[in-house]
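writing this on my phone so excuse typos. first protein, seq and then structure
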Amino acid sequence: MDTITNPIIRVTQLTKAYPEFSLGPISFDLPSNSFMALLGPNGSGKTSIIKILARVRQRDSGGIAIFGKDYDLKHPQIKQEIGVFLDEHHFPDELMIHELRWILSGIYKNWQPDLFLSYMYKFVLPVYRKLNTFTPDMKLKLGLAVALSHQSRILLVDEPTDGYSPGIRDEIMTELQEFAQKEGNSVLFATHNPANLGKLTDRVAIINDGQFLITVETKQIQEDYVLVKFSPTLFDKLKPLMIGYAKTKHGFEGITQQPEEVKRIAASNTVVMTPATLSDLMRFFVKGVQ
């Protein structure tokens, strides 16, 4: 594990077993002032991590420390400082926002009703309509407003924009970016789609089949990983240098951390090398050989 001094969240050897799937053991740190993504295909374990941290699910084993405190022990302030933003909410459908505004003050010690109301106006959400009349877009924005209105320092986010329009996605991501830019705040964002992340993330963990495959700072991706396109005649020589590769119409492509060695072996043969993207990393780390 890439150890970080004084992380806002530290997860150590976390496990969770299901009848047909096992998570972990996984370990990672979420730094302060960070926007970290858990990136992987559906069913890879991302949601389990988010829901375990949100205490929606129980873990089987492993340690969790938040703000340096054991998450197993009762620290009421920890719960207050974690905002949870999932793709669904569980507020009673018969409630109106003006009622929910005051009900939540009894749940969150640091609840800010005026801030919450300002988000209702910003998101154009009607405060005197029952929640069962809200569209999915409106419910999504309501969930985000709740997560942002109780002075949380951590946001746990699980696939919130999946299936929504690009306009809604951009609106939500702008709010998350503003939150992450405030001193001391961090976001842990789970998604299967690199396009959902834009340029927001500074750290990414790629996960598949319940295991972390790689954790990397996003600024290092284009410095450390190269996408290589090469002809079939070079395949046997370049294959050992590839982290993953795929057959294409005109030959092969793959990613490597050894571009100079690729150049040396290719010699006068033509290879095309470009900086790898986050999508490239996910494709070749998750799928490997294709």
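second protein below, same order as before
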Amino acid sequence: MRKSVFLILLCCIIVFLFSCTQQGDKGPTGPNGEDIAILQFQTGRYPSDAYDGVTDAYLESGFYADTNYGSYASFFVGRYVFGLHNGRERFVLKFDLSELQNQYIKVKKAEIILYCNSGTPSSVTMTVTPYEITKVWEESEVTWNSSETSVAWTTAGGDYVATPAGSTIYIDKVNEYKIFNINASIVQKWIDNPDNNFGLIFISDTENLSGNWWVGFASKDNTNINYRPRLVIYYTLK
């Protein structure tokens, strides 16, 4: 009897020691044991229903290159052809993170989640890529030609860093969420130096086609709060 008990205890000790030597599953940015927390930003919802720090608009070249689209429930990317519309479409998006400055936050990973709510043709396929904007723009004034009223972009269609600011997303379905991974170093810069946060511009590989080839996403003005653009930050403390 004592021998059986001894063997059972010995087995338990061996199992315990073995389990302690195993590395845990990796979390979203590193191994378990790293104290990772999450912050989210979304108009009217995160971090509280009082947050109103998202600005967005879409830009359209051609006949409407001087028209502002900063208050629509959706923004668009691609090529749009209808009546006098015959141009490229891009959208700009910014999250105000100034409240995080001097909070000792170290960004490990960041995602922007957008709800794709429309597209043409019904079999639309395209890629969309985010780029870091390098110039101040105003939501209620920005157009294809200008970042603000009477202030032209250096290059029509937006001034941005040529290197992508995050992952390129392949789109072949609508009415679902799309997740863009954004470079952690860019979001870190937005936090540490809010004056250098000019947001992102999203560009598709179909904007130079001759016919309709576009998708739309819910903007921060969309009546469905769940569909509005959301920034998710995974972080540790410095």
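Residues 1-27 have pLDDT under 50 and may be disordered. thats all i got for now
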